[in-house]
């Protein structure tokens, strides 16, 4: 049907690349978020939604998802540790977040490795300098924020492509791709496999 074909051609999805924490890291981050919330109020990020955005692409035609997935599969990735060391309140947008004092070099390389081919393929995104942060509060009250946080060492083993859908309670996220892709193999004796 011509009408259905036209409607499908204009369908878009809202997507971004991110780091997605495992359950242990997510729980630790939420404990920090609760401390921040007690001090500043505002809207606490849902535990299932906690992430670190690498590259926000916004609305793209659904037929371009495959190109993004191919791009992600070609990105060189090296596991690294992301230290969560500071809690910060941004007055200009009333957001409170946690993150490292300095962006680990491996994280900066990952962001560049996503941005360069995305730009070359015509995807549009904000080109401002990358700032590694995990948003835990939005619409927070006035600072200053004075929260001591335990250091969390996030062992980053992969990155994801996420679809964002808005509903009455805010954004809902669905992981639609993960790289490097994990081959399903039996667990070796003496080692534990982890997954998110």
Keywords:
single chain; 196 residues; alpha+beta; Cyclic Phosphodiesterase, Chain: A; 27% helix; disordered N terminus; disordered C terminus
Describe this structure in words.
There is one protein chain. A four-stranded antiparallel sheet has the order 3-1-9-10. It has a four-stranded antiparallel sheet with strand order 2-7-6-5, covered by helices on one side. Strands 4-8 form a two-stranded antiparallel ribbon. The chain has four helices and ten strands, in the order H-E-H-E-E-H-E-E-E-H-E-E-E-E. Helix content is 27%, strand content 33%. The N terminus and C terminus are likely disordered. The protein has one domain: Cyclic Phosphodiesterase, Chain: A. A hairpin with a 2-residue loop joins strand 9 and strand 10. It is of the alpha+beta class and 196 residues long.
């Amino acid at each position: 049907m011509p009408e259905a074909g036209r409607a499908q051609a204009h369908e878009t999805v809202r997507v971004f690349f991110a780091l997605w924490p495992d359950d242990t890291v997510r729980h630790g981050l939420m404990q920090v978020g609760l401390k921040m919330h007690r001090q500043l109020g505002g809207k606490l990020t849902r535990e299932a939604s906690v992430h670190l955005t690498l590259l926000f692409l916004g609305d793209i035609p659904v037929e371009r998802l495959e190109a993004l997935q191919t791009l992600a599969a070609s990105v060189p990735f090296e596991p690294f540790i992301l230290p969560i060391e500071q809690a910060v309140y941004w007055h200009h947008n009333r957001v409170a977040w946690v993150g490292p004092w300095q962006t680990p070099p491996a994280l900066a390389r990952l962001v560049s490795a996503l941005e360069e081919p995305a730009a070359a393929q015509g995807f549009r995104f904000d080109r401002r300098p990358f700032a590694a942060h995990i948003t835990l509060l939005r619409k927070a009250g006035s600072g200053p924020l004075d929260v001591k946080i335990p250091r969390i060492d996030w062992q980053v083993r992969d990155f994801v492509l996420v679809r964002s859908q808005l509903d009455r309670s805010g954004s809902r996220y669905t992981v639609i791709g993960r790289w490097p892709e994990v081959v399903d193999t039996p667990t070796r004796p003496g080692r534990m496999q982890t997954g998110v």
